[in-house]
Design brief:
The chain is built from 36 helices and 38 strands. The protein is an alpha+beta fold. The strands form eight sheets. The chain has an eight-stranded mixed beta barrel, surrounded by four helices. The protein has a six-stranded antiparallel beta sheet with strand order 14-13-12-17-16-15, with helices on both faces. The termini are far apart. InterPro entries: Biofilm_reg_signaling (IPR052155), CHASE_dom (IPR006189), CHASE_sf (IPR042240), EAL_dom (IPR001633), EAL_sf (IPR035919), GAF (IPR003018), GAF-like_dom_sf (IPR029016), GGDEF_dom (IPR000160).
Length: 1099
């Protein structure tokens, strides 16, 4: 027996050992079964909380989007004093409200309208919308059933009757304006107690408010569902006023966004994992049963009893707080892979109990792997939850990628993470964020190439690669590259690394893909926010630009509604009317203009509204603020909405007072002379045709007098145009004073006038001409100077000298030329002989021009002899014209023609050059000639470049002091001006002598003798001819010689023809003489012979 026991023990020992091993294995299996079950539940709970937080974040983000849209609409209404339905539709349509904000029924605006203005409001809205609008329900108010959660514990109390309000709040704008929403137009939200309570709370607080559950007016014909309306107040004059009283006073309306709770939840289903049940309570209702929504019939409390995970999140919604309860379901557990794996572990452990060492190793390894896998999943769920919450709060895109990298490492259990933006050409990428910092990869401007798995990831794949090491034993890393999309296009790569080669199994891959998708979702949100902000900014900038243009345009710009009341005025009209902008807006123009102007404005407004036509009209209005009469060009055009209905008027009134004054001034200038105010030639011809028609019909005569002021241009040239203008005005005043009121005095040019005298014969015209000449010759005191002028008049009589104004003008011009040829200061009556003389004078002028070009003119020289010694001292150059057909033409005839034709300057330069050249030639030949005298025309002297021409001549020929002498007539000397004096002094400094020709024949003033740098006086031949027979002439000659001696001048006697005249001159002390007694004017060759013989005789 004793021997058998050891054998039995030996035989049973394996069983005992096996049993022990089995027992140990079963015990170990039971232990690890419990561990696996706990870890699985923890991972499941963490995943569910992540999904639940993401659902809550989506709900908060959607509600925040509602708020953003409402504040955008609030800004639209606060930025403008009047928003048209077209502008509202354009703005709301651009936001794509019903597409972007899933679950929203509409976006609307409820206007705050006083009860007393309901009819006016309805009329304006019908005009804007084309009819079909009314405020409903109409007072007295209907009671409105509260559609909040029923209370079965107690009978529902009757809704209180609303007191008649001071305001109604009809929905005036709504988008989209479809068949469902059209019925809400005009609905007074104050008739619903719940809506009114929320709207009044929003008004008093200035903040966004959401109502308690209620029924929408759009759902009155169908099954009622729990719905809500969010209200945001809009105040007049912009910002939220301080204090409740001010807010109530300035309320303009509410932005109104209604939505149904089922639609709202349905819109979020794409962002809610399947098989998660949702229950929402409103903590602000203040009732035990505050349920707002439940996705099925099982409450959250019941789900707690069936081992499901329940997670609660508080959401602030306007002024309320919602509690969102999310619960898992069995279907969710299956989809999440949460089936209990413990039986499998137990079965495997029991089956492999014989292989204890392997089982222990396998279980240990499985435990480690499970722990690490559960930890990774838990960390990734945590990371997703954190980033989803951060995305809701994030305001700047630049923070997104660094945050994602940090959360992937700190919360997701990754070794490192980075984000790289693809380059524009798609061939490389730049690392813009990595974590931990400096953990590898290029930063900044470094561009890395897209190769291998990164290139595949850039096309949209999720790529896993192992880098370095051997099976994870030598420090290698498993690397995952995921595409990040923006608006569907891959724009970046998200890269994460882990030490474990098998770290990126399917479940982990799915969570990391979700992380990349969340980044793309955030980028799309930033784009939508940026687009919305850009749209709002562009709209604001457009409004500001339009406001800048309208406020600075030089016209009155305004808008009116269909009742003629101002809805917009620019600064110009405010300044013009002298009233405040606030006083104008909302009122017609009647109170700001006179009665007639108000009536015209109302009539034109009514015409535009009723007919739709554009009106343009000129009117003269009296500005109330200044009392000034102004002329305006008014344009009014109708304003139409999208349906073509006229809802208002755009008006532009431009002040054209100055333009009309300019036009009147231009008309005046076309008919009148600006200096004298006299009719010009155009107006004279118009009047002349009328006068001549009357004279022709009545048989009465008429006369045309052509007045020209003699040598008036010398006044302008010597004394300046201002003196000339003053002189003309003085003469016109004189002439106008003596003319009959029927006569027309007209100015043709600077110094030329016409007098058209009706009922005046030729004889009467002669008397009138004499009277006018006397007026012209009467001295005038201008600028302290006593000026005397003369005039010439040509007379033509109607009908003898012409049957039209053109013929009379031509005849008067011919007669004027005759008066000029007579020396001026006279008149001439036209006859046919004068016309022939005029033709001859014209021909002679043309011949003179040809003579200058063809070399027909000649210069002769007359000796100037010293009376004491008889020696020839100098010569005077005299111009002669031997005409090939008419013979010798005297200077007294062709010099005036040269001055009239403008040839005198060229002729004078030519003659002076010839004379100086001849003097230099004789001097070089040794002939004793001291000087050459040349006559000077006034026209030459008054030229600006005269002194320069003389200087060039002196330098060219090397003239010495006194070799050139210029002779001025006494008339030129008397036309004194500073300019004349300066010119003569300039010439004298060049060594040129100056003398006065024909002294004593001009004016009596001798003041010029001391002002001008003269050296010689020439005694006129008319005095020399009478010295022997006329004591007066002899006395004048003695006086001239004495005067010259007293002033230090020498004297030259002209025209000495007898020895007796020469003896007289010798006796009275005359220095030099010239005349036929010694020699006639000679050509250069004969004058040279004369000089040679004179030299021998005086030897």
């Amino acid at each position: 027996m004793a021997e058998r026991l050891p054998r039995v023990r030996s035989r049973l020992l394996p069983w005992w050992i096996s049993a022990a091993v089995l027992l140990a294995g079963l015990l170990a299996t039971g232990y690890y079964w419990q561990v696996a079950r706990d870890q699985q539940r923890a991972a499941f709970a963490e995943r569910f909380r992540s999904d639940a937080n993401r659902v809550a974040a989506n709900m908060a983000r959607q509600l925040q989007s509602f708020s953003v849209v409402m504040r955008g609409v609030q800004g639209l209404f606060q930025a403008s004093s009047h928003v048209t339905h077209a502008e509202f539709e354009q703005y709301a349509g651009a936001l794509e409200v019903t597409q972007e904000l899933v679950g929203v029924q509409a976006v609307a605006f409820a206007a705050a309208v006083p009860v007393s203005a309901i009819a006016e409001h309805e009329a304006a809205m019908r005009s804007a919308l084309g009819g079909g609008y009314r405020v409903h329900p109409q007072p007295p108010r209907e009671t409105v059933r509260d559609l909040s959660v029923p209370r079965p514990a107690a009978p529902e109390p009757a809704a209180p009757e609303l007191a008649a309000p001071e305001l109604v709040a009809p929905i005036a704008y709504i988008h989209p304006l479809d068949s469902t929403n059209r019925g809400a137009l005009g609905f007074d939200i104050f008739t619903n107690p719940l809506a009114r309570e929320a709207a009044e709370h929003a008004r008093d607080s200035g903040e966004l408010t959401i109502s308690a559950p209620l029924g929408l007016v759009q759902d009155r014909d169908r099954e009622q569902v729990r719905s809500f309306v969010m209200y945001l107040p809009v105040y007049t004059k912009g910002a939220v006023p301080e204090g409740v009283a001010a807010r109530r006073e300035r309320i303009a309306g509410w932005v109104d966004v209604p939505f149904r709770m089922p639609d709202f939840i349905a819109g979020l289903r794409d962002g809610i994992p399947p098989d998660i049940e949702i229950e929402i309570h409103d903590d602000g209702l203040g009732v035990p049963d505050s349920l707002l929504y439940r996705s099925d019939g099982v409450s959250a409390a019941q789900r707690n009893t069936v081992d499901e995970v329940v997670h609660r999140v508080q959401l602030p919604v306007g002024d309320r707080r919602w509690t969102v309860t999310l619960a898992s379901t069995p279907a969710y557990r299956v989809a999440a892979g949460a089936d209990d794996l413990a039986p499998g572990v137990a079965a495997a452990g029991s089956a492999l109990a014989a292989f204890l060492a392997a089982l222990v190793f396998t279980i240990a390894r499985g435990r480690d792997h499970s722990e690490r896998r559960a930890a990774r999943l838990s960390h990734l769920y945590h990371a997703l939850s954190e980033i989803n919450q951060a995305i809701v709060r994030m305001e700047r895109e630049v923070e997104l990628f660094p945050l994602a990298c940090r959360l992937a490492v700190d919360y997701g259990g990754m070794r490192r993470a980075w984000v790289g933006l693809l380059t524009d050409d798609g061939q490389g990428f730049r690392v813009t964020a990595n974590y931990p910092p400096g953990s590898g990869g290029a930063r900044g401007d470094g561009v890395l190439p897209l190769t291998g798995g990164l290139a595949r990831a850039a096309t949209g794949e999720s790529v896993v690669e192992w880098s370095g090491g051997d099976g994870g034993r030598d420090g290698g890393l498993a690397q995952l590259a995921l595409p990040v999309r923006r608006r569907g296009e891959v724009v970046a790569l998200l890269g994460v690394s882990h030490e474990s080669e098998g770290a990126f199994e399917d479940e982990v891959m799915g969570l990391l893909r979700e992380l990349a998708d969340d980044l793309g979702f955030a980028l799309d949100n930033f784009d939508r926010d940026a687009a919305r902000e850009a749209s709002e900014k562009a709209l604001q900038e457009s409004r500001e630009r339009l406001s800048t243009v309208l406020e600075n345009v030089g016209a009155c710009v305004y808008l009116k509604d269909s009742q003629g009341r101002f809805t917009y005025v620019n600064r110009r009209i405010v300044d013009l009317l002298g009233v405040a902008e606030a006083d104008l807006l909302g009122n017609p123009v009647d109170a700001f203009v006179d009665v007639d102007a108000a009536r015209r404005s109302r009539d034109s407004d009514r015409r535009v509204i009723e007919t739709g036509e554009r009106i343009e009209v000129e009117s003269e209005e009296t500005v109330v603020s200044s009392g000034e009469a102004r002329t305006f060009w008014n344009v009014k055009i109708p304003l139409r909405d999208d349906s073509g209905a006229i809802y208002g008027i755009c008006g532009i009134s431009t002040d054209i007072t100055e333009r009309r004054a300019s036009e009147a001034r231009l008309r005046y200038l076309s008919d009148y002379d600006t200096l004298t105010g006299l009719p010009n030639r155009r107006l004279l011809e118009q009047r002349a045709r009328t006068i001549l028609d009357v004279s022709r019909a009545s048989g009465e005569p008429a006369a045309l007098l052509y007045l020209d002021i003699d040598r008036f241009k010398y006044v302008n040239e010597s004394m300046g145009h201002s003196v000339g203008d003053d002189l003309l005005q003085a003469l016109v005043a004189r002439l106008s004073a003596v003319l009959d009121c029927d006569a027309t005095l007209s100015r043709l040019a600077a110094d030329q006038f016409f007098v058209l005298a009706p009922a005046v014969s030729a004889e009467g015209a002669i008397g009138l001409a004499a009277e006018l000449l006397e007026l012209v010759s009467t001295p005038v005191l201008i600028a302290g100077k006593r000026l005397s002028l003369t005039g010439s008049i040509g007379i033509a009589a109607f009908p003898e000298h012409g049957n039209s104004i053109e013929q009379l003008t031509q005849s008067a011009n011919v007669a004027l030329s005759q008066a000029k040829r007579r020396g001026g200061n006279t008149y001439a009556l036209f006859d046919e002989g004068l016309r022939q003389q005029s033709r001859e004078a014209l021909k002679l002028q043309n011949d003179l021009r040809d003579a200058l070009i063809g070399g027909q003119l000649q210069v002769l020289y007359q000796p100037q002899v010293d009376i004491a010694s008889g020696r020839v001292l100098g010569a005077e150059a005299l111009l002669r014209w031997p005409h090939p057909e008419l013979g010798e033409i005297p200077p007294s005839r062709f010099i005036p023609l040269a001055e009239e034709a403008g040839l005198i300057v060229d002729i004078g330069k030519w003659a002076m050059r010839v004379a100086v050249s001849q003097l230099v030639s004789w001097r070089r030949s040794g002939l004793p000639l001291e000087s050459m005298a040349v006559n000077l025309s006034a026209i030459q002297l008054y030229r600006e470049d005269f002194c320069g021409d003389i200087e060039a001549l002196v330098r060219e020929f090397g003239l010495a002091e006194g070799e050139l002498e210029l002779e001025l007539t006494e008339r030129i000397a008397m036309q004194h001006s500073q300019r004349t004096e300066d010119t003569l002094r300039c010439v004298r400094k060049l060594g040129v002598s100056l003398s006065i020709d024909d002294f004593g024949t001009g004016y009596s003033s001798l003041g010029y003798l001391k002002r001008y740098p003269l050296s010689k006086l020439k005694i006129d031949k008319s005095f020399i001819d009478g010295v022997l027979g006329s004591p007066e002439d002899a006395a004048i000659v003695r006086a001239i010689i004495a005067l010259a001696g007293g002033l230090g001048f020498t004297t030259v006697a002209e025209g000495v023809e007898t020895e007796a005249q020469l003896d007289f001159l010798r006796q009275v002390g005359c220095d030099t003489y010239q005349g036929y007694l010694f020699s006639r004017p000679l050509g250069a060759r004969k004058f040279e012979e004369l000089l040679a013989s004179s030299r021998r005789s005086t030897g």
